[in-house]
Amino acid sequence: MIELRTPAEIEQMKPAGRFVAQTLATLKAETTVGTNLLDIDARAHELIREAGAESCYIDYHPSFGASPFGKVICTSVNDAVLHGLPHDYDLRDGDLVSLDFAVSVDGWVSDSAVSFVVGEPDPADLALIDVTERALAAAIEVAQPGGRLGDISAAIGAVAREAGLTINTDFGGHGVGRTMHGDPHVPNDGRPKRGFPLRPGLVIAIEPWFLQSTDKLVRDDDGWTLRSADGSRGSHSEHTVAITADGPVVLTDRSGLD
Ligand code: MG
Question: Which residues belong to any copy of the Peptidase M24 domain (predicted)?
Fold first, then answer.
């Protein structure tokens, strides 16, 4: 069921969005060559405790998960792109890191992801990150009242195809509200002018993610981490966006924080 939020409820969702944005900006700034993935998780846990927020991940146990996630942030490195379970690994020069973070504050969820390189970047990695960021920006631009969900999907797909990438639509965006994953599903490709009408009050996570040379994923033995089937690297950009009568409001905007 797709739920629409009142303007007052969207106001109530803003603290969660601000906290997620601030936390990702902080973690990105503090993550460098030599940082251990478990230390990123511990730092995120500390920030959650300080803020009185609630992790959406730690007890998360969907049908595809082998056991509850047990950590508060997804850390996906290089050919890992989604659901990366933090483990004992020190980041190396040139690693491409994707952080995906969702919490609840005062009962409202926000969800956001960012990819970046630590140390000396490979230009191909920066180009891939740029494609996911541009796809997210293009999707937000068409997240307007009067549009359709397919406009968002089509905008993402167009940017990916223009960059010569293939698209996996198994995992994509989703409704966000009292819980992390609600209706509707927001595929990363689709046809414009189709699908659910974009009405004021719809709050969705939009999350393009792409791999350099495949659309196939394989799962690690940890039961969570999804990596490319061919070893090529991945990037993931996500914001929680509220559609309002005045246009899209990016609840997890990091402008001025990064
Ligand atoms: Mg997310």
Answer: 11-245
